Amino acid sequence: MSATAAAGAPLTDDDQAPISSRPSFAARAARTPAFVAGASLTAALVLLAVLAPVIGRYSPVQQNLLATLQGPSAAHWLGTDEFGRDVWSRLLYGGRTDLQVGVLAVLFPFVFGSLLGTLCGYLGGWLDGIVMRVVDVVLAFPFYVLIIALVFFVGEGTHGIFIAFALTDWVVYARTTRGAALVAVSQDWVAAAEGGGLSRSRVLFRHVLPNTISQAIVYVMSDIVLVILAVVTLGYLGLGIQPPAPDWGAMISDGQAFITVHPWLSIIPGIAVILVGVGLSLLGDGLADLQRPQ
Amino acid sequence: MSSLLEVSDLTVEVRRHHQRFRAVDGVSLRLPDGGSLGIVGESGSGKSMTLRAIMGLLPRTATVRAGTVQVAGELVADGGERSSGDRRRQRLAMVFQDALSALNPVMTVGAQVAEAPRRVGGLSARAARERALGLLRTVGIPDPARRYDSYPHELSGGLRQRVMIALALSTDPAVLLCDEPTTALDVTIQAQILGLLQDLRAAQGLGIVFVTHDLGVVGQICDEIAVMYAGRIVETGPVGAVLDAPRHPYTAALLASAVDVDDVGRMPQAIPGEVPDPLRLPPGCPFQPRCPLAQPDCAAGPISLRDIGPGDVGPGRSVACLHYDALAAGPAGPTGSAGAAPMGPEHG
Questions:
Q1: From the CA of B23, how many Å to the nearest CA of chain A?
Q2: Shortest CA distance to B84 belongs to which of A123, A197, A189?
Q3: Interface pTM (ipTM) of the complex?
Q4: Is residue B33 part of a domain?
């Protein structure tokens, strides 16, 4: 073995092969069916909610007691409810409220839980011990019982929902990212980064966190569905968005009184909930598929 | 002769199932300027643990109990002290066995190599990029400007290992600690990487500590060899002299267990018995239950490394064996009588 066989040594064919350009994220996304379906469905629903003032035609709270419980017509595409309010408009505005609450409610749990979980997995020790016991305690409660109790305690409406989710939902992110961080820490690249003299915060944020956050991002999609279902459930129980503001949960529960004669009043917002759930779940699956190495 | 790296009495304790054992027990090593030292031993002999302890990168379950590390006369680690701003991070760098797991999968290789020069060395973003490109060129990566933006999984095993070496060099170390860097590679790539390390050593005066279980590799690139067994060094000396005339029965058995391409008629001989459980080490010499030369006094008490040179073995030789003279007797070596040797009872 001499110097000639070193840096300039003949490389294998593999190494000499031209560097194929990496397909862009968009190109790969377009070839992932779950992502395409989920993204289109979600985008369509979000677009409808955003455009509610334009395509809603009526105010969602405007009552018309002369035209209550009407079937679909040219004037009211999906008919009217027991106060003569336009169902189509209420559906769009309700989606606006529910989607907004869903996205906002997972924001804090996502950021806080992912940071804390990654930190616990990276540092270990007493912090990890304490945080994970708290996580165990929160997870030991049935989810809805805990949420309903908290909303009841801090007060109904959107702020109650935000606080209830902020207090409970971070545990799922913390547990997921902690697991991913533990895997990362056992890999030599964390040792290599530390061995290179980088600060611990640099290793944490630049190296470990990007490897743990992807799993949290996938979960965000399912989590938004979970929040929307919770909001709808709370609305159904009268603890959610307060009337007369439109909300799918309240629409389902209000329509229940007329379920035998005017079933669409409950079924239509129910279908909307299902569509959002399917859309976001497919989007989450698609993102997970995209993250898997090809 | 001044020494570039000097490790004294390094002891590492590992916790397993609520029990503690010494994975590295009183290891002392010396690497002269521009020297290269090979540490060999079976899996579990503590060679990788020694390297990680020197670097201060032990897993959570392991702690340094005693020992000092000096680089070029400067004390960089003393006993169990541990801090992230460690001086040794600037003087020592590690090359890991598996480059795929030793490179961050979600960062481009260029960004990883440029990171230490930028964050630790304080270079500007542009200067750090130039430095990284220079390093990638130094380690023989073709067209570094294009490979710079590749992710680790997009590179071949050989290129990844070169990136790893570039990453190790990015902190401008005095000594490279290599943890079986060629084990995961096929033979041709292995030869290239070994050549690269030789080159770096010649061109930059880098000291190299090379951990491996492959005696052939040590013979190729190292001047000195240290043989480890059960967390202790059992034999050291110049690599040629030790491989030609081993004086510790374990070294001899290790040599006899290797395939020799120049002597295909000779079958490699396995070492009888198995590596002792570190939680239940046999008394005295840890190799004694498997050793064909074992005598009752071998189990009597701890056996330390003793200077045996020059005599008939040449200078700079040390061995931790009471009966090393027996190996001088003939070329047959100890393994010739391995089958007939009394095997100690399995530990426990």
A1: 19
A2: A197
A3: 0.80
A4: yes
